[in-house]
Amino acid sequence: MSVETLNYLLALGVLAMQVAGAGFLALYFLQKRFTDLQDVGDLLSRWGLWLAFLLTLAATVMTLYYSEVLGFAPCGWCWVQRVFLWPQALLFAVALWKQERSVADFSIALSIFGAAAALYQHYLQMGGGALIPCPASGAGDCAQRILFELGYVTFPLMAATLFGFLIVLMLYIRKR
């Protein structure tokens, strides 16, 4: 599979995650009003940790694939996002093993900071001026777009979407 095809498939996945995340967030606030939708909320509460684990594991593997196999050097802001993403895969694995649901608060905190870093880098890659310098020297340029699909999807936007989706999933986990 070519890099362009992989990029396009990932962008489609991000688009699907954005739509699903917005729908699940609306459902979270409206499910008391629409009792017919409570089954979906129950499903997310029951399987949310597994979904979060699989998504963070896949994202971790993909970041390593792009940097270590394909040779795309991660910039400073990419590393900041990785700091908030990678531990969550381990966090969810331990939570599943221990059957511990209180992990949701930790995931929300990590995801808020990760999303902030990702959205700032997306702002840079869409042509915004630097408000904060790139946090690493000698690495890739933080404002350089390596991936640009569907007219708006960049690597940082992929990360921000995942962090946002994790926050929504963790709302369901906390509720249960």
From TrEMBL:
<keyword id="KW-0249">Electron transport</keyword>
<comment type="similarity">
    <text>Belongs to the DsbB family. BdbC subfamily.</text>
</comment>
<dbReference type="GO" id="GO:0016020">
    <property type="term" value="C:membrane"/>
</dbReference>
<feature type="transmembrane region" description="Helical">
    <location>
        <begin position="153"/>
        <end position="173"/>
    </location>
</feature>
<feature type="transmembrane region" description="Helical">
    <location>
        <begin position="79"/>
        <end position="97"/>
    </location>
</feature>
<keyword id="KW-0472">Membrane</keyword>
<keyword id="KW-0812">Transmembrane</keyword>
<keyword id="KW-1015">Disulfide bond</keyword>
<dbReference type="GO" id="GO:0006457">
    <property type="term" value="P:protein folding"/>
</dbReference>
<dbReference type="InterPro" id="IPR003752">
    <property type="entry name" value="DiS_bond_form_DsbB/BdbC"/>
</dbReference>
<keyword id="KW-0560">Oxidoreductase</keyword>
<keyword id="KW-1133">Transmembrane helix</keyword>
<keyword id="KW-0676">Redox-active center</keyword>
<feature type="transmembrane region" description="Helical">
    <location>
        <begin position="104"/>
        <end position="123"/>
    </location>
</feature>
<dbReference type="Pfam" id="PF02600">
    <property type="entry name" value="DsbB"/>
</dbReference>
<dbReference type="InterPro" id="IPR012187">
    <property type="entry name" value="Disulphide_bond_form_BdbC"/>
</dbReference>
<keyword id="KW-0813">Transport</keyword>
<feature type="transmembrane region" description="Helical">
    <location>
        <begin position="6"/>
        <end position="29"/>
    </location>
</feature>
<dbReference type="GO" id="GO:0015035">
    <property type="term" value="F:protein-disulfide reductase activity"/>
</dbReference>
<dbReference type="InterPro" id="IPR023380">
    <property type="entry name" value="DsbB-like_sf"/>
</dbReference>
<protein>
    <recommendedName>
        <fullName>Disulfide bond formation protein DsbB</fullName>
    </recommendedName>
</protein>
<feature type="transmembrane region" description="Helical">
    <location>
        <begin position="49"/>
        <end position="67"/>
    </location>
</feature>
<keyword id="KW-0143">Chaperone</keyword>
